[in-house]
Amino acid sequence: MTMTPCSSPLLTDLYELTMLQAYRREGLTDTAVFELFVRRLPAGRNFLVAAGLAQALDYLEALRFSPEELSWLSSCGLFEREFVDYLSRLRFAGSVHAIPEGTVFFADEPLLRVTAPLPQAQLAETRLLNILNFQTAVASKAARCVLAAGGRTLVEFGLRRAHGGEAGLWAARAAYLAGFDGTSVTLASPLFGIPISGTMAHSFIQAHESEAQAFEAFARANSRGSTLLLDTYDVDQAAAEAAQLGLRLKAEGRPLRGIRLDSGDMAAQAKRVRRELDVAGLESAQIFASGNLDEWAIRDLLAAGAPIGGFGVGSRLATCADAPYFDCAYKLQEYAGKPRRKRSEGKATWPGRKQVWRRMADSRLSGDEVALEGEPAEGFQLLQPVMREGRRLPQPTLEESRRHARRQLEALPAPGKSLEPAPPYPVRISDGLRALAARLDEERRPIKAR
């Protein structure tokens, strides 16, 4: 099979297609409104950062079945010929409203609203959840690293531990959106314009007869500046060799950009290495740390007084190790002009088309309200139109969204910026929304026999 896996509409759950076949037979093609939201924040998270909208819109714009995919659907034995013919003409022609990328948001707030004929909106469910859940998870964790690092350099290092190539690439994008300075993923530069950064591996050191020889060879091969890895054998000896090389390079007018520590007691090592570099007059050489770091490790290193100027964060970020998924959902809220409400225990939804209103006080987020569309509320609206009749509307660039994310983090209330759990940010469900839910519940109440 020569289909491109990640762009195929077959990259979905089977029930999306089996439901579509039933919808077509019943003629259920009126306008549907679905909303994508997070039911509750993961433990320890005080906020989330919206990410992945650009890829979600890419998916919707390109949604169509190729001849090869249609041929497979015809031959797999699950679908009627008339349904496959119907799929051959299917295109997404709906509208989308979304919270802009980089925006801080909270539980129960629609991240995305899709308004389209029911089959089109239904088919999009699995892939939209897949795209937005992952990038939002990475961006939300990356934002915590940004807060912990206090302005120090952050580079995303997660490709080798990411759960697939697409995930590694999207992790680089989401981390940069949330405030990271760059990534080690080379493809992220031509695709997204993200600065790329790299150092060296232990294997490069081991391939040479001596550490000094390896450092010299690497520095000569990378004339724009190099960062040397110190912990292959002995950190203190490697630091002395790096300082000697740095002096020679300085005399030639060439920079030693820095050194990297990747294991052991990095706080103590960094203090010793900093002294070695400073005595040699290499104050501009930065100490860079990596090795299973996350926001807590960054916080602890800085609290210990480690003179570290930058961090490479990889495995725990690209896999969102402490919160690898969100309790997110994509639910039908209106069909054929009528509000719909799921009432499952623990998973009930707020019905109808909604808007999120945000209030500010003294340049800080002060409270949100989830209200029915058209219901008056205080503040400004978060959900904005991003697609109309299947066509994408002009969107911010990644750099613009990145600046927006920085302003959003600055606007968080002080407790929300903590890595520790804080009192929940106030999100109010409007009176109109509660009244609508109560009315629908009453209409569904069983009639008691007399």
Q: Can you give a write-up of this model?
A:
With 450 residues, the protein is α/β, with parallel strands linked by helices. The chain folds into two domains: 28-61 and 93-138 and 323-442, Alpha-Beta Barrel (nicotinate phosphoribosyltransferase), CATH 3.20.140.10; 139-318, TIM Barrel (Alpha-Beta Barrel), CATH 3.20.20. The protein contains 17 helices and 19 strands. It has helices at 14-26, 53-61, 67-75, 81-88, 118-123, 125-149, 165-178, 188-192, 202-206, 211-221, 235-251, 266-279, 295-303, 315-318, 398-411, 414-417, 431-444; strands at 31-38, 48-49, 95-98, 104-105, 112-117, 153-156, 182-183, 226-229, 256-261, 286-289, 310-313, 328-335, 338-339, 354-361, 364-372, 380-381, 384-388, 391-392, 427-429. Strands 13-12-1-5-3-17-18 form a seven-stranded antiparallel beta sheet. A six-stranded parallel beta sheet has the order 7-6-11-10-9-8. It is elongated and about 80 Å long.
Chain-averaged pLDDT: 96
Looking across the biggest beta sheet, what order are the strands in?
A: 13-12-1-5-3-17-18
Estimated radius of gyration: 26 Å
Q: Tell the overall outline.
A: elongated
- What separation lies between the terminal Cα atoms? 63 Å
Strand content: 15-25%
Structural class: alpha/beta
CATH topology (fold) name of the largest domain: nicotinate phosphoribosyltransferase
Question: How many helical elements?
Answer: 17
Share in helix:
40-55%
Q: Main beta sheet: strand number and arrangement?
A: 7 strands, antiparallel
Which CATH class of the largest domain? Alpha Beta
Q: Domain count, please report it.
A: 2
* Sequence stretches where pLDDT stays below 50 over 5 or more residues: none
Give the tally of β-strands.
Answer: 19
